[in-house]
Amino acid sequence: MPTETGYKRIFLIEDNRGDIRLIQEALKSTAAQCEVIVARDGMEAMAYLRQDGEFAEATLPDLILLDLNLPKKDGREVLAEIKSDPALKHIPVIVLSTSRNEEDISKSYDLHVNCYISKSRNLSELFKIVRGIEEFWLETATLPSEGK
């Protein structure tokens, strides 16, 4: 569901400022025109997605990139809430986490994550991962329209 300007909206739920900056830079280097919205904790993320309070006019994203280890509300809780909410469950969620813990991976898929990707600390690898996400999820995959 492109915006009126043709941009895709990516909702990045990440608390690490360095990772936020790197992911934003990696997305700028891709061919897709993206608007990146950032939430730095799980409570803010759910307020945005549910269009509560200051986010009453927020537009739902096309894709969610979710870190698991977040303050205030854990990424696993955020994922469970998104996938159990009829208004949100259609939005693809990609867990992008440094965790390679098998329990985290299994639990994420049990909660219906669309994809689990282990985040690399290597800058060129991280750019490659983000380009792959952009290429597949924003250029190749057919995403549902808002409100479906």
Automatic annotation (TrEMBL):
<dbReference type="Pfam" id="PF00072">
    <property type="entry name" value="Response_reg"/>
</dbReference>
<dbReference type="InterPro" id="IPR001789">
    <property type="entry name" value="Sig_transdc_resp-reg_receiver"/>
</dbReference>
<feature type="modified residue" description="4-aspartylphosphate">
    <location>
        <position position="67"/>
    </location>
</feature>
<dbReference type="InterPro" id="IPR011006">
    <property type="entry name" value="CheY-like_superfamily"/>
</dbReference>
<keyword id="KW-0597">Phosphoprotein</keyword>
<protein>
    <submittedName>
        <fullName>Response regulator</fullName>
    </submittedName>
</protein>
<feature type="domain" description="Response regulatory">
    <location>
        <begin position="9"/>
        <end position="134"/>
    </location>
</feature>
<dbReference type="InterPro" id="IPR052893">
    <property type="entry name" value="TCS_response_regulator"/>
</dbReference>
